[in-house]
Description:
The structure holds two protein chains of two kinds. The longest helix of chain A has 32 residues, at 71-102. In chain A, a hairpin with a 5-residue loop joins strand 1 (7-8) and strand 2 (14-15). Chain A folds into two domains: 3-44, no CATH class; 62-300, MetI-like fold (Orthogonal Bundle). Chain A has twelve helices and two strands. Chain A starts with 6 loop residues before the first strand and ends with a helix. In chain A, 70% of the residues lie in helices and 1% in strands. Chain B folds into two domains: 63-173 and 333-403, Periplasmic binding protein-like II (D-Maltodextrin-Binding Protein, domain 2, 3-Layer(aba) Sandwich), CATH 3.40.190; 176-317 and 410-449, 3-Layer(aba) Sandwich (D-Maltodextrin-Binding Protein, domain 2). In chain B, strand 4 and strand 5 (163-173) form a beta hairpin. In chain B, 48% of the residues are buried. Chain B contains 18 helices and 14 strands. At the A-B interface, helix 1, helix 9, helix 10, helix 11 and helix 12 of A face helix 1 and helix 17 of B.
Amino acid sequence: xxxxxxxxxxxxxxxxxxxxxxxxxxxxxxxxxxxxxxxxxxxxxxxxxxxxxxxxxxxxxxxxxxxxxxxxxxxxxxxxxxxxxxxxxxxxxxxxxxxxxxxxxxxxxxxxxxxxxxxxxxxxxxxxxxxxxxxxxxxxxxxxxxxxxxxxxxxxxxxxxxxxxxxxxxxxxxxxxxxxxxxxxxxxxxxxxxxxxxxxxxxxxxxxxxxxxxxxxxxxxxxxxxxxxxxxxxxxxxxxxxxxxxxxxxxxxxxxxxxxxxxxxxxxxxxxxxxxxxxxxxxxxxxxxxxxxxxxxxxxx
Amino acid sequence: xxxxxxxxxxxxxxxxxxxxxxxxxxxxxxxxxxxxxxxxxxxxxxxxxxxxxxxxxxxxxxxxxxxxxxxxxxxxxxxxxxxxxxxxxxxxxxxxxxxxxxxxxxxxxxxxxxxxxxxxxxxxxxxxxxxxxxxxxxxxxxxxxxxxxxxxxxxxxxxxxxxxxxxxxxxxxxxxxxxxxxxxxxxxxxxxxxxxxxxxxxxxxxxxxxxxxxxxxxxxxxxxxxxxxxxxxxxxxxxxxxxxxxxxxxxxxxxxxxxxxxxxxxxxxxxxxxxxxxxxxxxxxxxxxxxxxxxxxxxxxxxxxxxxxxxxxxxxxxxxxxxxxxxxxxxxxxxxxxxxxxxxxxxxxxxxxxxxxxxxxxxxxxxxxxxxxxxxxxxxxxxxxxxxxxxxxxxxxxxxxxxxxxxxxxxxxxxxxxxxxxxxxxxxxxxxxxxxxxxxxxxxxxxxxx
Lengths: 301, 450
């Protein structure tokens, strides 16, 4: 680029404009696709009903007050907390367990390869396929009830997704099944990066496998685990497709989560301002998490 | 999967900007992006004006644009052939804008926002309220009156605030499907005509076979079961959930009886398990697998059921009525509706074209081609070679009046969802009485009508 693009600030330092020119396509895209929509949603949340109202009026935090005092929203928060915390913990435990199984020295490379594919399969399915699959298995006449009945664990045809007491547990289980491979694959990569020297040294010092796990494996995996947990928390809090396709937030409000609540507010009730306010709250939670995540990453580097 | 919510919200923004903000002349939106969209709209409007000039100004004769999704669903060339008949009669050219349903919906919404709607538009009942309130579709009552049109020949009219805005051209009915093998196995020899008989039949099936008597999809994600499977019972007994176009639930005797009737079926455990999370397609699957004896469903699924299991021995029947009810029965329908854009220069011609489509012969032809029932009560479609069950259903349809009270209501899907959720609570015993439940629903519904 020629010099004409550059100018000098008052201290006489040259201000490079050229880099910004190179960056501009990305910056413009980011602004149009990310920044503007986010700010528009936040702006909507401070008006009375936008979009379907000709002249929306600024109402301050009224939408936030409405949302926060809505029983339905509180139920959604409670369900989301259960859904997210159980999912995230189960993902971690199952993912770590499978990763360690696949990392063992006792199995041949071929066997490990086959199991790696099998264990990773759920991650390959789209949400709609997963929903259809599990709806069939959860069907009162489905395989899960059949297995329970032939093993004498249950005598009735339980409607897993249609019962108020089981539905939330049932969708959480689907989500656990659908998402653990991401942990497994990431942790497996992490495990393979741990130097064998550490384990050898520990073995010479007489460390038991349990001690080796807690004093070598876990600390070595910590950076990966923290990234995984943060990402998973944000993704699970936003899980919409699975819940919508299996229960739609029902029966009644048994599986209502923040994402289904927001969807209903916007596209079923046309209460775009309330939906924006709820989305603003979720955005706030996710932003706080993102800040922690960024800080943790920075501390490492 | 990351960023699900954000993506959804972004989409909402984009759609909202393009479709809805334009409706209101951008009074409240000053973001710069809007300006570029606005410019785009201006270009579109200018183009549309140029196009319409080329069609009318230069060529002197009238040409009407007819935007719909029917052309795509009818056999190829059928709709073209039908409208060419009109051009022959009147010399008015019809330009067909045929696109799949979802695209048509988007285009008509965008047209409504910018005032560039096609002259005549295919409508779905669920869009009517918004378009009518917004003033983008014309009041057909006035047009019919101006033309001296006899509207008693119409099977139904979709009204907003007492005026007609949509006329159903073809109706897709929701009769009751019966699994005859299950009835035989259960020793039921006659099809139930009243609710008491229905309970007896359902009891017999549930007791004597592996199947259940009744099924009703109550999923809250797609709550159409309230419209198609629950209200079907009310309408069959001549009931109504509205009064002068507004909710009339509390103290509505027929509705209370219908709610209580469903509770009886649930309490006696005659209903297939898992219905709270069930959608219409799940219901059809249960029926197709012979796990339930009765269901109310769209005739559109007849082909699916035939294809899926040819051994299924089915019959069609009217939805049983309240005991001692002798009046005419209503039958639930979904339809292809038609309306006129407010912005058209040719309102009279547009109405004339609609009258042509609704005339008995033409309407019968559309119905046959679409595997539907005609919107004109005098039409006599000849369904040659049609499925005998389809013909049975047609007899039932002719003997009933077409009705769908959710058509034309504001946020109709949400109304159904509120109903479904509270009905589930009632069936679970969370409410003491049906009326108590209806009062809660009516409160919620009223908000949508404000």
